[in-house]
User: Fold this.
Amino acid sequence: MIIPYQKLSPDALHGVIEEVVTRDGTELSDAEGMIAEVMALLKQGKAVITYDMKTRTCNIVAADSVRDEEAESE
Assistant:
């Protein structure tokens, strides 16, 4: 399921991005630049936030990959 980033409050959006960016062990002090990059990708429509109901987790993926998956399932 795609979650439009505009539907999240600024704090919730920052928290989601921060969690995804630091998931691989990136230190929070190093993450601010990456958070800004991800925010820019979301605003440009190049990335989307997805939610997996099975695992109850959010992820941020390339928008093209989601479109490709949707086309394959049709």
